């Protein structure tokens, strides 16, 4: 079982759309996939039309793993389950923190998860918090969407600095360009600069696209309603690149 | 569907509808294994198992044997279950599959439902099957829907297989149960038992006649012959149970019934083993080989017509009816043997035969003439039949184990004999059909290979016999068939 996350300090960069389409395409390729919506705004849950179970009161940590399993919901697609966004995820960071360590009472939870799933996709909230630190520890690969603007370049640098300061392995970070408008010269020059400075960028660039925005209206991954559109083709190419990274991680 | 959906919105796929023919072999081997073989109207075939479904398209018309199908998993599976038997249409039904999803207010799928309807060819018997596919995290929705339908647990099928559905629709094939026992008892008289057993075996023979006339597969003739051969064996091995003139009549009539089918069976065996013979010869013999099998196929057709004519001849029915009438007569008890309890008589006969085999076999070494080896084979066959005839009077497992030991020896002796029969058959064929050089070459080539195989088999005889002749086996024979049964004494 591999754990990947979609993460960005900055909001509105296409992080949720990437998580949703990535999970959908992985499942379609046969990976038994679990998408965990860690963002309290619940956008990826919304896209998959799942709601959290009601009345989940904060229980003690020992029960957190059990309640986690109860939260799993089948999506409308084969091989793809979702844990919807929920306030009780204040416990989830604890679970994540334990993921890489064995010999503890939570490891059984993850044993069970790893029997059921090949891939866990974490859709993260756009903050640097104790939750994101747990995500960084737990993830095999951290995909970071970057809009090629000066501001995004800065936040990307902040992320790298944070990793350095806290001694997280920088190798796990895999950035890619998102919401690219090829006609804008600022986008072009930023991409050129960043590619020169950071070799780790994926080749695929996600274009800025109305089809991606329409996901909110269709409430379904883009492959379901705009299969032959350029945006979907870009996501497919991106997933193929990501798949290689995941396999190698 | 509306009835169960309640507050959910339904989305339905178009129904996948087809009229299909269900096929099986005469013993219903597929049905018994929980499999369903169907032929669709476009001549595509489908084999349904517990979960998986195997398919082949573009099958030749009139396909009925496994080797008629194109290379596929379906063909391999058929070979396992039907072996030499043919599949025939059994019934037709209309099958309709449709998939439905129920969505909640968010448009989220909360339950998948598959519907299958089966209607038989009369259109009178139909069943609708509902399969709920629960989705993780949506069990409450499943419960609501099931409650709405008022479904009870007792209505659940234990399997989702097509076999379970067809069975539930009321399809129940008439399976001729192969009788494992004759229903004789240890104290019954020899004459009564032998009459009863012979009649049972003749009934099996008669039941196979129509299949031979219709030329469905080679097994009908095979089973017809086996039943008759066993009847003859029983009547001859226990001949003292009848007055001499009655025995002679039975023997003559039975020989007459069986003899007419010899040629056809010989040809069947050759044709069935075509691949086996083909691999004995290099490719440049193919022309002659094909000629040979062309002749055999033609002769087989001739032999089949002869058998058909003889079966339709009034004399055939008359002979059968006469044998049956003779066996149905009340026992005459012409001597003490006829009146003896059958178990006791069988024990004596079996043990005697075993001892005879011991004496015969011990004299066999690598230089013993072939006819003595054949004699040993015939004695072994008689012993095997005797043990099988009366098996129900003895402990099952012990008889089975002894038979297993005996069969190992019989296989070697049988193969040794088969090679000579095949050699003779081919040599005879060469004489009567030997016009072409290629044909002669193929026949001589086959004879040479068979001869080598026979020599190899002959070399195994002595060793195989010594395994059969071990002290342990002898002890077991003595214990099971010795007249003083220690167990019964104690009891």
Termini gap of chain A = 11 Å
Category by helix and strand content of chain A: alpha/beta
**Structural category of chain B:** alpha+beta
The level 1 CATH classification of the largest domain in chain B is Mainly Alpha
Radius of gyration of chain A: 17 Å
Name of the level-1 CATH class of chain A: Alpha Beta
Side by side, the strands of the main sheet of chain A go 3-4-2-5-1-6-7-8
Please provide the count of β strands of chain B: 8
Proportion in β-strands of chain A: 15-25%
Can you tell me the CATH architecture of chain A?
A: 3-Layer(aba) Sandwich
Please report the two chains with the greatest interface, counting residues with C-beta closer than 8 angstroms to the partner's C-beta: A-B, 12 and 9 residues
Which CATH-level-2 architecture of the largest domain in chain B?
Alpha solenoid
Name given to the CATH homologous superfamily of chain A: P-loop containing nucleotide triphosphate hydrolases
Instruction: Please provide the count of β strands of chain A.
Output: 8
Elements of chain A, N to C (H/E) = EHEHHEEHHEHEHEHEHHHH
Helix content class of chain A: 40-55%
In short:
Chain A has 249 residues and is of the alpha/beta class.
Task: Give a structural overview.
The complex is a heterodimer of chains A (249) and B (491). Chain A has 249 residues and is an alpha/beta fold. Chain A has one domain: P-loop containing nucleotide triphosphate hydrolases (Rossmann fold, 3-Layer(aba) Sandwich), CATH 3.40.50. Chain A has twelve helices and eight strands. Chain A has helices spanning 15-28, 43-47, 61-71, 92-99, 107-116, 130-138, 150-166, 185-197, 210-213, 215-218, 222-225, 230-248, and strands at 2-6, 33-37, 73-74, 80-83, 119-123, 141-146, 173-180, 205-207. In chain A, strands 3-4-2-5-1-6-7-8 form an eight-stranded mixed sheet, sandwiched between helices. In chain A, helix 4 packs parallel to helix 6 (130-138). The longest helix of chain A has 19 residues, at 230-248. The radius of gyration of chain A is 17 Å and the shape is globular. In chain B, strands 1, 2, 3, 4, 5, 6, 7 and 8 form an eight-stranded antiparallel sheet that branches. The model of chain B is unreliable at 486-491 (pLDDT under 50). The longest helix of chain B has 38 residues, at 396-433. Chain B has helices at residues 2-5, 29-32, 73-82, 139-149, 162-168, 190-207, 209-213, 218-237, 244-259, 262-272, 274-278, 286-312, 314-328, 336-339, 342-362, 370-389, 396-433, 437-458, 461-468, 471-481, 486-490; strands at 9-12, 16-24, 36-39, 45-48, 53-56, 88-103, 109-120, 126-133. Chain B has four domains: 1-13 and 99-152, no CATH class; 26-86, no CATH class; 184-340, CHAD domain (Alpha solenoid), CATH 1.40.20; 341-491, CHAD domain. In chain B, strand 7 (109-120) and strand 8 form a beta hairpin. In chain B, helix 15 (342-362) runs antiparallel to helix 20 and helix 17 packs antiparallel against helix 18. Chain B is 57% helix and 12% strand. Chain B has 491 residues and is an alpha+beta fold. The interface between A and B is small, with 12 and 9 residues.
């Amino acid at each position: 079982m591999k754990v990947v996350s979609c993460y960005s300090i900055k909001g509105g960069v296409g992080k949720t759309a990437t998580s949703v389409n990535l999970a959908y395409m992985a499942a379609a390729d046969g990976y038994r996939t679990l998408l965990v919506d860690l963002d309290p705004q619940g956008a990826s849950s919304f896209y998959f039309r799942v709601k959290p179970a009601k009345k989940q009161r904060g229980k003690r940590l020992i029960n957190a793993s059990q309640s986690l399993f109860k939260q799993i919901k089948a999506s409308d697609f084969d091989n793809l389950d979702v844990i919807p966004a929920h306030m009780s995820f204040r416990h989830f960071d604890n679970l994540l923190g334990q993921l890489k360590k064995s010999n503890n009472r939570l490891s059984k939870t993850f044993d069970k998860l790893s029997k059921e799933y090949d891939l866990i996709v974490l859709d993260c909230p756009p903050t640097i918090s104790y939750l994101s630190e747990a995500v960084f520890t737990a993830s095999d690969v951290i995909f970071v969407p970057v809009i090629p603007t000066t501001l995004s370049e800065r936040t990307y640098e902040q992320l790298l600095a944070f990793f350095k300061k806290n001694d997280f392995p920088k190798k796990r970070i895999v950035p890619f360009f998102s919401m690219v408008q090829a006609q804008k010269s600022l986008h072009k020059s930023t991409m050129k600069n960043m590619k020169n400075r950071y070799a780790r960028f994926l080749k695929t660039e996600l274009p800025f696209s109305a089809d991606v925005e329409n996901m909110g209206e269709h409430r379904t991954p883009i492959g379901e309603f705009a299969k032959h559109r350029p945006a979907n083709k870009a996501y497919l190419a991106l997933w193929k690149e990501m798949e290689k990274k995941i396999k190698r991680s | 569907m509306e009835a169960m959906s309640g507050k959910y919105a339904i989305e339905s796929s178009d129904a996948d509808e087809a009229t299909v023919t269900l096929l099986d072999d005469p013993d219903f081997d597929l049905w018994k294994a929980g499999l369903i073989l169907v032929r669709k109207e476009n001549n595509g075939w489908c084999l349904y198992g517990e979960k998986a479904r195997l398919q082949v398209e573009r099958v030749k018309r009139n396909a009925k044997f496994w080797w008629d199908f194109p290379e596929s998993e379906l063909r391999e599976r058929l070979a396992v279950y039907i072996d030499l038997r043919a599949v025939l249409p059994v019934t037709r039904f209309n099958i309709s599959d449709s998939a439905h999803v129920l969505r909640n207010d968010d448009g989220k799928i909360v339950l998948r439902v598959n519907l299958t309807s089966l209607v038989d060819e009369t259109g009178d018997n139909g069943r609708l099957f509902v399969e709920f596919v629960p989705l993780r995290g949506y069990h409450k929705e499943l419960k609501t829907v099931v409650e709405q339908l008022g479904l009870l647990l007792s209505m659940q099928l234990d399997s989702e297989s097509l076999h379970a559905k067809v069975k539930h629709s009321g399809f129940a094939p008439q399976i001729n149960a192969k009788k494992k026992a004759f229903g004789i008892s240890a104290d019954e008289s020899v004459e009564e038992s032998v009459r009863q057993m012979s009649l049972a075996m003749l009934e099996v023979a008669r039941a196979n006649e129509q299949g031979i006339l219709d030329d469905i597969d080679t097994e009908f003739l095979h089973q017809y012959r086996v039943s008759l051969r066993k009847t003859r064996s029983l009547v001859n091995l226990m001949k003292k149970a009848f007055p001499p003139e009655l025995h002679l009549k039975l023997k003559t009539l039975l020989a007459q019934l069986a003899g007419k089918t010899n040629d056809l069976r010989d040809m069947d065996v050759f044709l069935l083993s075509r691949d086996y013979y083909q691999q004995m010869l290099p490719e440049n013999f193919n022309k002659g080989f094909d000629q040979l099998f062309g002749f055999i196929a033609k002769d087989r057709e001739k032999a089949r017509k002869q058998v058909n004519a003889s079966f339709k001849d009034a004399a055939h029915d008359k002979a059968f009816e006469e044998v049956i009438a003779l066996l149905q007569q009340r026992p005459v008890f012409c001597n003490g043997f006829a009146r003896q309890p059958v178990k006791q008589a069988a024990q004596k006969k079996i043990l005697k035969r075993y001892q005879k085999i011991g004496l015969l076999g011990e004299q066999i070494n690598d230089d013993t003439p072939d006819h003595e080896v054949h004699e040993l084979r015939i004695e072994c066959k008689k012993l095997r039949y005797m043990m099988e005839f009366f098996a129900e009077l003895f402990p099952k497992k012990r008889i089975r184990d002894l038979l297993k030991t005996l069969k190992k020896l019989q296989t070697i002796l049988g193969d040794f004999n088969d090679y000579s029969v095949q050699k003779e058959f081919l040599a005879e064929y060469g004489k009567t059909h030997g016009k072409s050089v290629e044909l002669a070459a193929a026949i001589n080539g086959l004879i040479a290979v068979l001869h080598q195989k026979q020599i190899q088999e002959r070399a195994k005889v002595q060793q195989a016999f010594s395994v059969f002749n071990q002290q342990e086996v002898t002890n077991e024979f003595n214990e099971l068939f010795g007249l003083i049964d220690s167990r019964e004494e104690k009891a």
